[in-house]
C-alpha cells in the first residue's frame, strides 16, 4: 500500500516523548499497580499490616535470581532474553514467599516475621554481591544500576511483555476477591465460610509473586511502594472490602510512583535521582507511623 | 422421615496430625445428635472438646471412622455445602484491617454469595436480623479489635447465626460474657433449637447454665464421650467428677 520508500523522521522532541517519556510513564503506572496490589495480597495472606514484597525480602529474592540467571546466561552462553529474566524473577519471589510462609507458621509475632524478612533480604543481597564480584566489568554497571531500581530502563518492546502480563495477573486476581475477604478472618473461619484455604492461599501467593517478580525484572527492586500503598489505602478508605482496596491500590500506587518519578527527575536540573530515594521517603515514615499508632501486635 | 440434619459419628477417632504422626484424642466415638436439641459439652481442659467441634465442621481431619449429616457422609460434601450445614464459633480472636462487627457478621452469608462476594437485599436483611437478635445493633459499625471481649463474642455468635445452618457448634461462647448475657445467650440457643429445629452443640465450663438450659450433655473424660440426658447428670460419675463436688 505504501509503495516506494518512505522516510520517517523524528524530531528529537518526538523521539524523547515516544521512546523515553512514554515508556517511563507507563512503567511507573504498571509498577505502582503491581507492587501495591502484591503488597495488599501479602498483608492479607500473613494477616500482617507490615508485610510487603520489599521488606519481606521478596524483591531481593527476585533480584538475586535475575542476577543468577543473567550470569548463568553469560557463562554457559545461552540466550537470556527479557522473558527469561522475568521467569527468573518470578521464580525468586515465589521461592522467598513460600519460605516466609513456612517460617510464619513457627513465629506468631508480626514484628519477628518482619525482621526475618529483612534478614532474608540481607542474605539475598550478600549472595548477589558475591555474584557481582565475579561478573565481568561490562555487566557490573548494568547490575548495580538495575539493583538501585529504575523506571527508565524499560523500552517499548519490554512493555509488550510487561503490560499484558501485569493486566492479566490483575484480572485473574478479581476471581479471588471472595477468598481475599475470607482470609481476613483467619484460616478456620475462612474454611467455615466455604473457602478452600490452602488452595486459595497458594494461588494468591502465585499471583503476588508474579506481580512482584515481573516488576522487579523490568525495574529492579522498588522500595516501600508494596507495603505503604495498602496501608495508605486502608487509612483513606475505612472499608474491609478487598475489592475496594484492590482498586484504590491501583490508583494510589500509580499516583505515588508517578509523583516519585517526577520529583526525582526535577529536584536537581539535569540529574535523575534514583526513584527508590523518593519511595523510601514516602514509605518508611508511613510504616513507622503505623507502628507507633497501632499497638495490636 | 429421617431428619436430614441429624449429625452422627460412626466409630470415629478424633485427634490431630503432628509431623505426619496421628495423635488421637477421642477414640471410637458412636454418637447421634438430633435436631431441635441443645446439647452441652462438658469436660476438663484439654480433654478434646474443641477437637470434637473442629472435626465436626471439617477444620480438623477425621482420623478414622465416619461422620454423617442425615444420610450424607461429610467427606462427600463440598466445603461450600458443608458451610451451609454447619457453623462454628471459635475461641480465637480476629480483627484488624478495618474489620467492623458488621463485616464479621456479614461473613456468615459468604457461602451464599457469588464469587465477587456481592450481598443482595436478602443477604443484608439476614445479616441485620442476626445483628438484632444478638443485641449488637448499636455496635455494628465499631472496629472489631476495639470491641470488648463480650461484644466480640456476641459478634461471632451473630456471624454463626447469619450463616443459617441447621447445625451450630459453639466453643466456650459464654467465657467472656457478663452474667445476664450468659443467660441471654443460652435462652437464645434454647429458642433456636426449639423454634428453628437446629441441632446446637455448645461447650462450656458454666455447668449450672448447661444443666438449666440444655436437654442433653456430652460428658468427655479419659478419651471417651457419653451422651446423657440432663436429668441423669447428677447420677453420672464422670460428670460429677468434672463438677469437682462444687455443684449445689
Features:
heterodimer, A: 297 residues, mainly alpha, 0% strand, disordered N terminus, B: alpha/beta, four-stranded antiparallel beta sheet, globular
Q: Strands across the major sheet of chain B, in which order?
A: 6-7-8-3-9-10
Q: Which CATH first-tier class of chain A would you pick?
A: Mainly Alpha
Broad shape of chain A: globular
Would you tell me the structural class of the helices and strands of chain A?
mainly alpha
Report the CATH topology name of chain A: ABC transporter involved in vitamin B12 uptake, BtuC
The percentage of residues in β strands of chain A lies in: under 5%
Low-confidence stretches of chain A: 1-5
Specify the CATH homologous superfamily of chain A. Answer: ABC transporter involved in vitamin B12 uptake, BtuC
Helicity of chain A, as a percent range = over 70%
Radius of gyration of chain A: 20 Å
When the domains of chain A are counted, the total is 1
Q: How many beta-strand elements of chain B?
A: 10
Helix/strand order of chain A: HHHHHHHHHHHH
In CATH terms, what is the architecture of chain A?
Orthogonal Bundle
Distance between the termini of chain A: 68 Å
Approximate shape of chain B: globular
Most extensive interface, chain pair and sizes: A-B, 28 and 36 residues
Strand content of chain B: 25-35%
Overall mean pLDDT score of chain B? Answer: 92
Task: Round the Cα radius of gyration of chain B to an integer and report it.
Answer: 18 Å
Amino acid at each position: 500500500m505504501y509503495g516506494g520508500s518512505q522516510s520517517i523522521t523524528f524530531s528529537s522532541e518526538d523521539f524523547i516523548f515516544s521512546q523515553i517519556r512514554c515508556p517511563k510513564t507507563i512503567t511507573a503506572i504498571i509498577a505502582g499497580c503491581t507492587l501495591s496490589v502484591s503488597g495488599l495480597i501479602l498483608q492479607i495472606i500473613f494477616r500482617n499490616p507490615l508485610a510487603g514484597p520489599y521488606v519481606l525480602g521478596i524483591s531481593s529474592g527476585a533480584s538475586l535470581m535475575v542476577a543468577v540467571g543473567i550470569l548463568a546466561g553469560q557463562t554457559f552462553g545461552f540466550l537470556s532474553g527479557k522473558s527469561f529474566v522475568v521467569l527468573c524473577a518470578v521464580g525468586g519471589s515465589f521461592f522467598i514467599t513460600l519460605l516466609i510462609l513456612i517460617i510464619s507458621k513457627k513465629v506468631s509475632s508480626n514484628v519477628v516475621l518482619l525482621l526475618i524478612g529483612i534478614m532474608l533480604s540481607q542474605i539475598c543481597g550478600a549472595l548477589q554481591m558475591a555474584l557481582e564480584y565475579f561478573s565481568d566489568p561490562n555487566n557490573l554497571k548494568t547490575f548495580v544500576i538495575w539493583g538501585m531500581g529504575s523506571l527508565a530502563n524499560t523500552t517499548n518492546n519490554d512493555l509488550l511483555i510487561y503490560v499484558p502480563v501485569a493486566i492479566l495477573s490483575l484480572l485473574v486476581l478479581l476471581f479471588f476477591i471472595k477468598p481475599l475477604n475470607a482470609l481476613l478472618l483467619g484460616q478456620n473461619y475462612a474454611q467455615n465460610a466455604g473457602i478452600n484455604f490452602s488452595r486459595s492461599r497458594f494461588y494468591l501467593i502465585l499471583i503476588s509473586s508474579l506481580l512482584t517478580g515481573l516488576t522487579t525484572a523490568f525495574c529492579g527492586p522498588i522500595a516501600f511502594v508494596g507495603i505503604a500503598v495498602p496501608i495508605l489505602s486502608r487509612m483513606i478508605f475505612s472499608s474491609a472490602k478487598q475489592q475496594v482496596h484492590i482498586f484504590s491500590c491501583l490508583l494510589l500506587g500509580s499516583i505515588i510512583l508517578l509523583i516519585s518519578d517526577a520529583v526525582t527527575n526535577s529536584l536537581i536540573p539535569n540529574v535523575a535521582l534514583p526513584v527508590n530515594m523518593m519511595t523510601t521517603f514516602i514509605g518508611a515514615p508511613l510504616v513507622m507511623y503505623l507502628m507507633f499508632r497501632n499497638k495490636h501486635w | 422421615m429421617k431428619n436430614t440434619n441429624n449429625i452422627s459419628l460412626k466409630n470415629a477417632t478424633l485427634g490431630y496430625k503432628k509431623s505426619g504422626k496421628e495423635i488421637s484424642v477421642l477414640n471410637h466415638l458412636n454418637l447421634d445428635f438430633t435436631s431441635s436439641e441443645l446439647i452441652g459439652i462438658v469436660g476438663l481442659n484439654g480433654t478434646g472438646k474443641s477437637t470434637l467441634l473442629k472435626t465436626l465442621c471439617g477444620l480438623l481431619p477425621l482420623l478414622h471412622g465416619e461422620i454423617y449429616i442425615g444420610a450424607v457422609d461429610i467427606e462427600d460434601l463440598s466445603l461450600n455445602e458443608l458451610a451451609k450445614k454447619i457453623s462454628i464459633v471459635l475461641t480465637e480472636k480476629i480483627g484488624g484491617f478495618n474489620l467492623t462487627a458488621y463485616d464479621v457478621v456479614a461473613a456468615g452469608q459468604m457461602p451464599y454469595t457469588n464469587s465477587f462476594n456481592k450481598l443482595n437485599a436478602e443477604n443484608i436483611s439476614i445479616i441485620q436480623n442476626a445483628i438484632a437478635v444478638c443485641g449488637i445493633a448499636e455496635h455494628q459499625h465499631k472496629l472489631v479489635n476495639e470491641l470488648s471481649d463480650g461484644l466480640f463474642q456476641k459478634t461471632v455468635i451473630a456471624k454463626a447465626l447469619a450463616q443459617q445452618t441447621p447445625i451450630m457448634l459453639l466453643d466456650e461462647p459464654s467465657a467472656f460474657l457478663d452474667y445476664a448475657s450468659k443467660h441471654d445467650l443460652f435462652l437464645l440457643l434454647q429458642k433456636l433449637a426449639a423454634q428453628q429445629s437446629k441441632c446446637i452443640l455448645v461447650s462450656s465450663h458454666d455447668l449450672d447454665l448447661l444443666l438449666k438450659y440444655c436437654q442433653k450433655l456430652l460428658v468427655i473424660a479419659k478419651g471417651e464421650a457419653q451422651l446423657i440426658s440432663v436429668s441423669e447428670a447428677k447420677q453420672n460419675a464422670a460428670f460429677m467428677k468434672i463438677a469437682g463436688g462444687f455443684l449445689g
